[in-house]
Amino acid sequence: MQDSVLSSEFTSSPELVEKLYKNGVKKIYREGDIILDENSSIRSIPIVVKGMMKVIRTEEDGREILLYYIRAGESCIMSFLGGMHNEKSIVKAEVEEDTEILFLPVDKVSLFIKEYPEWLDYIFRLYHKRFEELLDIVNAIAFKKVDERLLNLLMKKSEILETKILIITHEQLANELGTARVVVSRLLKQLEDSGKLMLGRNKITML
User: Fold this and answer.
1) Is this model's pTM higher than 0.85 or not?
2) Along the chain (207 residues), what's the average pLDDT of each consecutive run of 10 residues?
3) How far, in whole angstroms, is CA 101 from its chain's centroid?
């Protein structure tokens, strides 16, 4: 059975959707699973069918920073580019919530570009979206204070997950922002005092 999320992405080409499922391998992952690690070979491209995962970049000193989320119907443009050029991954992809992923072999990615204009358009749309998100990250790091970035991250998570209650630790938030846990804890307390959120044990409720 084909999921409507991919059918809605390629409304003008049901044949492409059929070939994606015929040539791809579907797998289910749990929250926290690592789909792709840095320096790993890219043999297939992940397309999220259900759920969500996040793409992270790790610095030499071990600090991490969140680059973007991949939602249902989307894929990782970094995987596209690395796989097509036979390069190793420069990012890590981690499951944010229980997720179903369709893995498409790299050779099929190139073949479908030649056969289906809708597939090439899909890749360009993903590239454009990720480019804008990365520009936002650069802008936030360069011009915004950490408290603004923290609040924006929490609001984005709340929107994406469609819930006011976020189950997350201060350490996880610190990793995604590329800062120290003690900084995040202090800023969360300030946000709570200002009435923007309420803190619980490994839980944050947006107000």
Assistant:
1) no
2) 73 89 94 91 92 87 84 90 86 92 92 92 92 85 84 88 90 86 91 91 90
3) 12
CB-count exposure of residue 75 (10 Å: 0-12, 13-18, 19+): buried
Token pair 């070979």 is at which residue?
41
- Residue 182's alpha-carbon distances to 94, 174, 188, in angstroms, are 24, 8, 10
Enter the tokens of residue 84: 């097509």
Pick from 35, 91, 33: which is nearest to 59 by CA? 91
Q: What is the 3-state secondary structure (H, E, C) of 163-199?
A: CCEEECCHHHHHHHHCCCHHHHHHHHHHHHHCCCEEE
Burial bucket for residue 80 (CB in 10 Å: 0-12, 13-18, 19+) = buried
